Amino acid sequence: MRASSFPSPTHTDKFRVRRFVFPLLCAAIFCGLQSASAQSNTAPAILQELKDFDEMGSVLYVAAHPDDENTQLITYFARGRHYRTAYLSLTRGDGGQNVLGGEFGSELGVIRTQELLAARRLDGGQQFFSRAMDFGFSKDYRETLNIWDRDQVTADIVRIIRTFQPDVVITRFPPTPSNTHGHHTASAFLALEAFKFAGDPKAYPDQFEAANGGLKPWQPKRIFMNGRGESGGLQMDINGNDPVSGESFGAIAGRSRAMHKSQGFDNFRGGGGNSRPESFQLLAGEPATNDIMDGVDTTWSRIPGGTEIAKQADDLIANFNSTNLDANIPALLKLKSALAALPSDRLIEEKRKKLDHILQTCLGLEVETTIPQAEVVPGETLSLHSTVTLHSSIPVRWLRTAHLVFPRFPTLQSDEVPFTINLVSGQPSSHDERITLPASTPLTQPYWLREEPGTGMFHVADASLIGTAENASAFPIEQVFEVGGQKLVVPGEPVQAETHRRLDVIPPVSLHFVSDVKLFAPGSTHQVQVEVTAARTEPFCMVTLNAPAGWKVSPVSESSKLTSVGEKKTFTFTLTAPSKPASATITASAEIHGPLIQGVSYSNDRTDIAYKHIPHLLLQPVARMKAVSFDLATRGKKIGYVPGAGDSVADALTEMGYDVTSLTGADLTTNRLKDFDAVVIGIRAFNVRKDLVPQLPDLFAYAEAGGTVIEQYNRPGNDLKTEQLTPYSLTLSGDRVTDETATMTFLVTNHPVLNIPNKITAADFDGWVQERGIYFPNKWDDHFTAIFACHDAGEAPLKGSLLVAPYGKGYFVYTGLDFFRELPAGVPGAYRLFANLVSLGK
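Request: output the structure for the sequence above.
Response:
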């Protein structure tokens, strides 16, 4: 595949708002071992791991978002040249859009985190992140640096460099302004700063403290910017085939990139047979002439005492017995003993774990620990069933199961007793034990979401977690064996027996507000309902609604018994808004009194995310609701909603008082539509659905007969199913206004959209989040009236954010305004304006 045909990340779908854990190194190693384990345990795969062990070179690739990384380059370095290769994505993509469903913000960030991990399992890389939030499309890197905490992000990159210890750093984008996303430029700019600081013992000295990671200065040799086929700079061809599977690097890279399914890349496929030139422009550090590793010792000789390690590893590789894996064990044990004699540091520890994995694989040592359930409540007893099967004739003794949470919970109770099992080849051995978790065991929640974020940054209290891709196991364990007089440690975690889902720690109940946003007229009173779901049988639950001053709650609390697992009970409170317009965040908590837990309060909602290409995800944020008090008038009663790529606009319309019916493509007939006052089409509907285009004539006829159709934004491009989105022509573009505070100029002050039934003023655009809108049309038929003009600083006004056309007796509306973000955020003016759109002609 030619470099020019490899799509560069344009982020056209990413225009943004938004367990007990191992230290950073352990998480990185765990990700690397997952990559190795994903391969079949064949002799070629073991030999590949041996070559990885023997290679000491390392590369860190840095960019801004999930999908920015050059997957073929990562594949080439990791699988072709055996380098330790990692991708640092400064953000988790939490500000983007989602073609799979309705998850946005932090939920989408968790999905995209797992998509990157799935990609790395394919291409062989490791994965890191900074604390920077993906806050929305940025046209200028200086705006990005004003929203991100520049010093914190730089510190994060320095931390990851000092931890991963790369010889070479590579950025995806130039560090100077160019025609790209501001996050892109900022990622390179900050990477260059971090490159200069990482080796300086005076820079970020807090990272050298044991509590903050116990790091040491590390200076990479050089930092490049990676280009694809550009002239100048160092040129390298990254074509080739994976020595294990025989698959081309391009094909593997294509499968890796296709894991970004939430961004619509699931059909992406790489090429493979053609030359793939890559260019590398030196940004700082020592020049290179022939290769990115010029002047870098990528052998064990760089390590004091490493010469003997290199000799033994080279001999192992040269004399590797692929037909009798047992024959390799004596040499592996000798190498393991020599490696144990070296002074320990982060890189040596990583190599020790890799060598243990190679030894385990050669022994055919299958290890699994299962639990009967995937979820446990603090204070409960956890039943562990460990099974080990040896497929080698080499004697192996199973010594013990080590629980890595013991140092954290010295009062952890276990009925574990010492045991020694002499494994017999081909015969499974097992061990059972029961562990009582302390009531203080933290609940499962992605570590970067445990605290309220700041502006542009996640808050992480434990510095050792910064940079890690995900939480480690809630209950990490190690199985300890003896082979040839040496200890062999196999890390792991308990998984649910049938589903292989990892262990999650949950509260005995979860709480959920029936409405995420509740609308009030000033001084009015509404019922607020909190649904409580029992995860365990607890006899008594007292629920409290928490509201800020000025908002009145009655009663103070409600109590009930929860007597069966899965039982749901709805607790109803009355909430009275202040007499003047206001907004508030309302939270709920439940105090539990039962056999396991007495007097402990929980305030956790629950969100399960399940997609086939990533593991099951559980989020347990604080249960909260947005309450908004303002003046809102509506006209019409019945609305038909045609879902698109996923949004919660239909829920917002229901909260406004409308009777909302979800419509399929087959429902879009003149006879079916005549009962609705308006039909609203969800975001990107014409990008993700194939059943709408044939029904457009009926939709047009509905408007012509007096109905109102409101089309929310679609994205221009190859996946757009039709250019004829409306009865009159318009042309979509990439035009957008990213400044959510941009002035909105009213172009036709007497238009019904601005006056009926709500008088729209500039104040209605206060408090908008992330941006004004995206993918505005830049050309349209004269039948359309442009309602607003707005622009980002230094740019010409854009008039395509809201277009309204009379059509027969009705109206057709096309809008790129971000209603799908503003309505769930409880922005009053967005509700008032949308009510006016629905009310056209009423």
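Residues 609 and 617 are 5 Å apart (CA to CA).
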